[in-house]
Amino acid sequence: MSTLRYFATASLDGYVADSSGAFDWAAPDAEMHAFVNDQVRTAGTWLLGRRMYQTMLYWENADTSEQTSAVERDFTGIWRSCDKIVYSTTLAAPSSTRTRLEPRFDPARVRDLKTRAEGDLTIGGATLAGEALRAGLVDVVELLVVPWVIGGGLSWLPADLRLPLELVDERRFASGAVYLRYAIMAGR
Predict the structure, then answer these.
(1) Nearest one of 118, 121, 41 to 81, comparing CA atoms
(2) What is the distance between the alpha carbons of residues 28 and 30, in angstroms, rounded to a whole number?
(3) Quick one: which of 126, 122, 180, 167 has its CA closest to 2?
(4) Residue 158: C-alpha distances to residues 3, 23, 33, 140, 146 (Å)
(5) Residue range 145-162: average pLDDT?
(6) 116 band by pLDDT with thresholds 50, 70 and 90
(7) pTM higher than 0.85, yes or no?
(8) Who contacts 155 (Cβ-Cβ below 8 Å, separation ≥6)?
């Protein structure tokens, strides 16, 4: 069975986007970007909400010439090689290869996908990840905390969620960011 991982980058006060929807304060430096690449490299399929998908579409046509950093070229290759499932009622068609649209998040279909998938699954977008967490589908929660307090916005976790977690990995970066990886404990 595949592992479903929720990977988020958030401010110290727990937001993935500020109150205006911006997240430029979370831009990774080269060290963090290379680390993120290594973390998501094993994902064969990404499950994405519409907003996260539209944000990530940049990588579909990103410059891969020598003028672009090696870490960005690497991530472009990772993005392009993954299958993507986008949950949206408003998108008419995908704008990337290896992408299919689903009108709604169906926990039973994701459970089935976890049993059939060859690689890990990564879920992106706080709202969609919240649904998967509530449905008991997420196995690993990964958080990259950046050294910003932004005072409000979109929380990386739903307010009404309670889960027992076990810290299984951590890392500090020169920028002051911290990576935390938690396994969701059995018997949730």
Answers:
(1) 41
(2) 7
(3) 122
(4) 21, 18, 26, 16, 19
(5) 96
(6) very high
(7) yes
(8) 14, 15, 16, 126
